[in-house]
Design brief:
heterotrimer, A alpha+beta (793), B alpha+beta (293), C alpha+beta (155), A: Aldehyde Oxidoreductase, domain 4, B: 293 residues, 5-stranded antiparallel β-sheet, globular
């Protein structure tokens, strides 16, 4: 029986079931009479469907039925883009393609059978005749004349053009002493949560209730979108997100399979299960990043940065996924000032359709792309003017602020102390000592480099009116209910929907510390639209900053009411009642006390309540933040490069983050670790590669290198604390920081290791071959230069 | 999209090599031998292989066990990677094999994947084929009637193709005792996703009086359609004192047998594989020389 | 032709008639409702399905159930004894070696075997020992800590 405090590393409540194999994920759901769904998917990236013959498949023993897109089209509608930009083209996206396929993996038929094996057997026998069309996979090439056209209404495959401008970049460039230009590729990534997606749909004909279990981050939004698209009434639709095995953004949408399984369950009156295979996941679940950026940075030789300009081709894939338009625009372009005072910023983004898997949020979502670009260009600029990257960063940092700071992109940071966080990182990591090691190592033919990344991110999604003005199609507030039972036990309902973040623990910690009840007396329920009031889900490092505040508000209401009841019971003025350690006491008569549990019972027995007070002790709150939160930090990475092979290893990693106040440091550290590993993965080894025909060459875990334990080091983490005023917890959000910061830290370190060879940029991922080639080319260039110099002299 | 579910098949579990061979004949090319299954089963789940029958070799005692004799080691084809890496006989008699086995894939795969399965599959990026080549191993087979002894350097024929006949079962792998003053090494650049070798080089070097290389065996995996001996490099090494420049010159000829046809895929270009073959060859030979002490 | 097999699962001997193509992981999950063993990929890469087969860790997606005939299988559900979780399970909780929990059962099974074979592993040995198990949440940092902690606790 222990109460928890804020800031305490409380061990997780979730773990007891997860370490014993008693978690419940979608694929663990088994319902009576359940049928299994297998989807026949297009092997072509771009083709018209001439004919679909399902007869052989339908004849397989155990097969219930086979549907094509044409069979279900009327009932399923089109998958929506939930983020709408001005003049955006949002083409139809049928859950089952019926005229044309636009990406390898487009579903073309749905096989339903009494076993997964029979469904798989039959899926092999669906005979689809395609007329194959030329494909395009590169966003820049897709905009050029003569490129294959994906959608009739999207001319040159352009979905939208978006821009943000602050100051006057062209003037700044004209008067700058130095202008540095660089093309930067931010490669496409496959999110790879360890649990693939899955759906179980269960329809009750009598009540017209449809229940959809889905491995999703957004049960309520999914229910809303499902209802809007299919017409199934929202109040008769229940979405359950049970234990979810990771998301990282890719479970943040309404997906075709959710609709297909739901509609087939309605048609057949039997539960339907679909479990995504991993290779299926690689084509059917959204990807992340995929930017081609042409960037300029300008400034003066003293290190002052005066402007930044970028044009981005953002590859959106074949269709617009739910949040896709918001990621490379709002969550990217508005971030381009980083931690710096850059008076002139200009950003244009061209969103482009290609014959590839749709691209949407992936851990960080827009912010890693922005941070990579800014942090890379700051280093590039420092190198160009021959100055230390730390010195250049310090020179351009915004001065510490507590009450908001507007930057050239028009956004208003909440609070920041960028020098402070970098100073702390430099206390942990001795740069001077490293430079000595680096020189010594180079003499022995070993290449070492150090890279810095001083990043900012935007979290706490989101002030709804601001988000709506930027294109969001739904409010992004959050909700909570605190239900105190007569025995004093507490149930919390949250509209956030965790998938590894440990809300059951950190939210219980907030309750325990506020109400003084033991941790084990608090149950945090999430992920069931029939249980919880509407909420927005878990993404954008928002759960604590927005959902936590909604919880605080309900707790305050509960405490207000409980205090009144206690005062009434103790026959005193509520102002005289104090609360500590779970007990109400009178200030002047400390022996008169009433435990919280007794108040809970009094609230429910309702025998002696203050006049006109309603019985019960349950409160619900909805919180819409007035601003985003803006965490920041400074990461330092050391790499070792094998000069002969290009093999590159992260040898040391220091992360100092400022995410405001921390509820559970153990959980925060864990998220930072995971984020760093994903960012290192992007920097060194991950990358989705398509051939020109639109075939995914990295189509399985044998070819797409998710980092293993051997690919990353242990991390050194620390924090500074600059609370936000956006919520009363002072918490900013921690889920994405590691990923946002780490890729540029790694690449900057590699460039640092190679700069004596004249290298100033290298694109991710740093597969050993590309590092090796960079070294070879640089040495060749140096030789050519030397020989030219000899000839000249 | 089909994953996880193989096409239906018959399951056979013979108790003798002759019976396994008879079953191979019975299914006429549509029966597949199942050893550890760690190459075959994934292919079946993706329906890249759909045999009519699986013939599980795990019930045949003749295929099991590691025996140490005066002439060397005799290793049953069903010996797992884990047994190889943890066997004191292998560690002392063929440290190259123990070391290479410890570099294969991961713990779980090494617990069940077998040497016989690995060499019979002849995956172009597998770790053990170059090792049996460099160790001058003999592949001993059995069938319904009789067996054969196939030298390792006549065993690997092509991409996923060996000298095994359709009804033949690999029974054991005989590894001759290494001469005195012999050093060995296997080094590889692993594919970060699959842990297979982008390139891997095994070297066995015997030094004679005055540090002269009496005998050299170098073999390469990952670079071409199947593992190959680097005979040209061996000839450069043999008869010489192995100074750095000799090793470097020899390393440049490792892979010459591929006639410039290095593998190329999304992980590495042919040019890079060729360059890395030379780097890793130099490292393998250098390490083997150091071990020969 | 379905085949009859006898498998001792977490100490209890089961006789079942199964399709030859049923994978061991499917057998555990579907026939015996032992859903703690997860399926994370289809290429024997991720290790989420790791169980012990006759005491050795194996990716149960790469073994057919018929191959386990006559064998003993231990899953994560069978690790606890007398209601007390295994020290490795306890260490994963203590050191926050899990987040979403999906890789966790497999990761724990591999770690248990790792410590049986090497009771005092170095960080490098731990990282090498679990490279067949992918985790996307923890960055492995706290998994390594958990295995070290379990090793220390078992001393």
């Amino acid at each position: 029986m222990t109460t928890a405090k804020l800031g305490e590393a409380v061990r997780r409540i979730e773990d007891d079931r997860l370490i014993t194999g008693r978690g419940k994920y979608v694929d663990d759901v088994k319902l009576a009479g359940m049928l299994h769904l297998a989807l026949v998917r297009s092997p072509h990236a771009h083709a018209t469907i001439k004919n679909i013959d399902v007869s052989a498949a339908a004849a397989v023993p155990g097969v219930e039925t086979v549907f094509t897109g044409a069979d279900l089209q009327e009932q399923m509608g089109s998958l929506p883009a939930g983020w709408v930009l001005e003049d955006m083209v949002a083409p139809d996206h049928p859950p089952i393609a019926f005229e044309k396929v636009r990406v390898v993996g487009d579903a073309v038929a749905a096989v339903v059978a009494d076993s997964a094996a029979a469904a798989a057997d039959a899926a092999q026998l669906v005979d689809v005749t395609y007329d194959v069309l030329p494909a395009v996979v590169d966003a820049e090439k897709a905009t050029q004349s003569g490129a294959p056209q994906l959608h009739e209404d999207a001319k040159n495959n352009v979905a939208f053009n978006w821009d943000v401008h602050g100051g006057d970049y062209s003037e700044a460039a004209k008067s700058a002493e130095v202008v540095v230009k660089q093309r930067i590729i931010n490669q496409r990534l496959i999110p790879n949560p360890m649990e693939t997606r899955g759906v179980v749909a269960d329809y009750d004909i009598g009540s017209d209730h449809l229940t959809v279990y889905s491995s999703t981050q957004i049960p309520h939004l999914m229910r809303l979108l499902f209802s809007l698209v299919t017409g199934h009434p929202e109040h008769k639709l229940r979405v359950i997100a049970p234990d979810v095995g990771g998301g990282f953004g890719c479970k943040l949408y309404l997906y075709a399979e959710e609709i297909i399984a739901g509609i087939i369950a309605k048609n057949l009156g039997r539960p339907i299960k679909w479990t995504e295979g991993r290779q299926e996941n690689y084509v059917a679940t959204t990807h992340g990043r995929d930017h081609i950026a042409d960037v300029e940075i300008c400034g003066n030789k003293d290190g002052t940065i005066t402007g930044l300009k970028a044009h981005i081709y953002a590859n959106l894939g074949a269709y617009l996924s739910t949040f896709a338009p918001g990621i490379p625009t709002v969550l990217f372009g508005l971030m381009l000032s980083g931690q710096y005072k850059i008076p002139n910023i200009s950003c244009d983004v061209t969103g482009v359709f290609t014959n590839t898997t749709p691209v949407d949020a992936y851990r960080g979502a827009g912010r890693p792309e922005a941070t990579y670009l800014v942090e890379r260009m700051v280093d590039r600029f420092a190198q160009e003017i021959g100055r230390d990257p730390v010195v250049v960063r310090r020179k351009n940092f915004l001065a510490p602020f507590k009450n908001g700071k507007e930057v050239a992109t028009g956004v208003n940071y909440d609070s920041g102390n960028y020098r402070g966080v970098l100073n702390k990182a430099l206390e942990i990591f001795d740069v001077k000592e490293f430079r000595d090691q680096q020189r010594a190592a180079r003499r022995e033919g070993k290449l070492l480099g150090v890279g810095f990344s001083t990043y900012i991110e935007i979290c706490g999604m989101a002030p709804s009116a601001v988000a709506a003005a930027l294109g969001a199609g739904a409010g992004l507030w959050e909700s909570s209910t605190v239900r105190v039972h007569p025995t004093g036990k507490v149930t919390v309902l949250t509209g956030t929907s965790p998938h590894g973040q440990g809300h059951e623990t950190s939210f219980a910690q907030i309750v325990s510390s506020t109400l003084g009840v033991p941790m084990e007396d608090v149950d945090v329920l999430h992920g069931d639209t029939d249980r919880q009031q509407f909420g927005t889900g878990t993404f954008g490092s928002r759960s604590l900053a927005v959902g936590g505040q909604a919880l605080m508000m309900s707790l305050r209401k509960v405490m207000d009411k409980a205090t009144k009841i206690a005062a009434h019971e103790l026959d005193a003025d509520p102002k005289m009642v104090q609360f500590a350690d779970g007990v109400f006491r009178l200030e002047d008569i400390p022996e008169k006390e009433l435990p919280f549990g007794d108040v809970a019972l009094a609230a429910h027995s309702a025998v002696n309540l203050p006049p006109r007070m309603e019985p019960g002790l349950e409160e619900t709150s909805f919180f819409d933040p007035e601003n985003f939160t803006w965490p920041f930090g400074a990461h330092i990475c050391v790499v070792e490069i094998d000069e002969a092979t290009g093999e590159t290893k992260v040898a040391k990693y220091v992360a100092v983050d400022d995410i405001g106040n921390v509820i559970n440091p153990m959980i925060v550290d864990g998220m930072v670790h995971g984020g760093i590993a994903q960012g290192i993965g992007q920097a060194l080894q991950e990358g989705a590669v398509y051939d020109d025909d639109g075939q995914l060459l990295t189509g399985s875990m044998l070819d797409y290198a998710v980092p293993t334990a051997e690919d990353v080091p242990s991390f050194i983490t620390d924090r500074t604390v600059t609370p936000t005023k956006v919520n009363e917890l002072g918490a900013k959000g921690a889920g994405e920081a590691g990923t946002i910061a780490s890729s540029p830290a790694v690449i900057n370190a590699v460039v640092d290791a190679l700069k004596h060879l004249g290298v100033n940029h290298i694109d991710m991922p740093l597969r050993s071959e590309s590092v090796w080639r960079t070294i070879q080319d640089a040495k060749e260039a140096q030789r050519a230069k030397r020989s030219a110099a000899r000839k000249g002299s | 999209m089909v994953t996880m579910t193989s096409a239906p098949f018959e399951y056979e579990k013979p108790e003798s090599v002759a019976e396994a061979s008879r079953l191979l004949s019975k299914y006429g090319g549509n029966g597949k031998l199942l050893a550890g299954g760690h190459s075959l089963v994934p292919l079946m789940k993706l329906r890249l292989a759909s045999p009519d029958a699986l013939i599980d070799l795990s019930g045949i005692n003749d295929l099991k066990g590691i025996k140490s004799t005066a002439n060397g080691l005799s290793i049953g084809s069903m010996t797992t990677y884990h047994e190889l890496e943890s066997s004191s006989d292998v560690q002392s008699g063929a440290p190259l094999l123990a070391d290479a086995a410890s570099q294969v894939a991961d713990t779980q795969v090494r617990n069940f994947g077998t040497i016989g399965g690995a060499v019979s599959h002849s995956d172009p990026a597998s770790d053990l084929p170059p090792v049996v080549l460099a160790l001058d191993a003999t592949m001993v087979t059995g069938s319904q009637r009789s067996g054969r002894e196939i030298p390792a350097d006549r065993f690997f024929k092509d991409f996923l193709t060996t000298a095994l006949r359709p009804n033949e079962v690999l029974v054991r792998i005989d590894i001759p005792k290494l001469p005195a003053n012999t050093g060995t090494a296997y080094v590889k650049m692993a594919n970060k996703a699959s842990h297979y070798a982008l390139v891997g080089v095994a070297a066995v070097i015997t030094l004679g009086a005055g540090g002269v290389c009496e005998r050299a065996r170098v073999a390469l995996t990952g670079a071409g359609p199947h593992a190959v001996r680097a005979r040209r490099a061996e000839r450069i090494l043999e008869g010489k004192v192995l100074a750095g420049n000799v090793i470097r010159n020899a390393s440049k000829r490792v892979g010459a047998e591929l006639d410039g046809m290095f593998n190329e895929d999304v992980h590495a270009s042919a040019e890079y594989r060729e360059a890395m073959t030379q780097v890793y060859a130099e490292r393998a030979i250098t390490a083997a020389v150091a071990n020969a002490g | 032709m379905p085949t009859t097999i006898n498998v001792t699962v977490n100490g209890t001997t089961r006789t079942d008639t199964v399709d030859e193509r049923l994978l061991l992981v499917q057998y555990l999950r579907e026939v015996h409702s032992l859903t703690g063993t997860h399926i994370g990929c289809d290429t024997s890469s991720c290790g989420a399905c790791t169980v012990h087969l006759d005491g050795k860790s194996v990716k149960s997606c790469t073994v057919f159930a018929v191959q386990a005939d006559g064998s003993e299988v231990t899953t994560v559900e069978g690790l606890a004894s007398n209601g007390t979780v295994h020290p490795v399970q306890a260490a994963f909780k203590e050191k926050h070696g899990l987040q979403c929990g999906f890789c966790t059962p497999g990761m724990i099974m591999t770690s248990v075997e790792l410590l049986e074979r090497n009771p005092d592993p170095s960080e490098e040995e731990i990282r090498s020992g679990i490279r067949g198990n992918l985790c996307r949440c923890t960055g492995y940092h706290n998994i390594v800590q958990a295995v070290k902690f379990a090793a220390m606790e078992s001393k």
